[in-house]
Amino acid sequence: MNTEPLPTPDEAWRQMREGNRRFVEGSPQHPHQDVDTRHSLAEGQRPVATLFGCSDSRLAAEIIFDKGLGDLFVIRNAGHMVSASAVGSIEYAVEILNVPLIIVLAHDTCGAVRAAIDGTAIDAAPLPPQIWKLIAPIVPAARKVLASNGGKSAAEIDAEQVGREHLRNTVAELLSSSEIISDAVAEGRLGIVGANYRLSQGEVIPIVSVGLSEDVGLANDTHPASVKEQL
Asked: How many H-runs (helices) and E-runs (strands) does the chain carry?
């Protein structure tokens, strides 16, 4: 097992960005995928980041960020929905594994987001109960965007805009639902980045960040001075 000190939140995000850049450029290094790494990890794990993302088959976290065995602690469900199991898993990574970074990863053309938008229509066809229960947390984001777009119909709403709103809501909910997560951010040992993955380009675009001091290159947001100001 690797015994080197874990990176800071800024350093961890820099590593993740560099890995994604290699993936986008088509020059991945495929690190930590050899037999020696596999054997060493039998003793324990020290992942550099937690990846909380959508279950979509096109979001293979270790591939997107050019990482390998033991590098990422991954939690995924459809639409990156905050649930007891997701929060508990992230808390384990933060408190027990001392992971310095959480990446909440959304993506364009998300089926869960589209279903939530379509579900706001008055004449929307009913969905199976468990699927509706799953996507219901996205509906407030869809309604907010719908209300701000001058009376457009659900079919005309920009799904990417809804996805960004839901991404911000997810980051805010992680902080509000877990003292372990919010305390780690306040103490400067944890950063959170909410990002969107471009399926065609392969690029990860940061949308919202908390607890990072360096310029993370946010799209459509300014870098926060504090957790409170960001969210």
From this structure: 10, 5
Across the range 61-85, mean pLDDT stands at 95
Whether pTM exceeds 0.70: yes
The domain tally of the chain equals 1
Check which CATH number belongs to the domain holding 44 and give it. 3.40.1050.10
Task: Answer whether residue 222 shows pLDDT above 70.
Answer: no
Task: Identify whether the C-beta of residue 95 lies closer than 8 Å to the C-beta of residue 101.
Answer: no
Contacts of 70 (CB under 8 A, 6+ apart): 1, 2, 32, 37, 41, 45, 46, 47
Class of residue 39 by CB neighbours under 10 A (exposed 0-12, middle 13-18, buried 19+)? exposed
pLDDT above 70 for 3 = no
Q: What is the pLDDT of residues 112-136, one digit of tens each?
A: 898 888 877 767 777 788 888 888 8
C-alpha to C-alpha distance for 207 and 225, rounded to whole angstroms: 15
Structural domain including 17 reads 9-109+164-230
The mean predicted confidence, pLDDT, of the chain is 88
- Please give the Cα distance from 10 to 211 (Å, whole number): 9
> Is residue 151 a part of any domain in this protein?
no
Q: Is 179 helix (H, G, I), strand (E, B) or coil?
A: helix
Q: Are 174 and 104 in contact (CB under 8 A)?
A: yes
Burial readout 125-149 (b: 16 or more C-beta within 10 A, e: otherwise)? eebeeeeeebbebbbebbbebbeee
Phi, psi of 114 (to 5 degrees): -60, -40
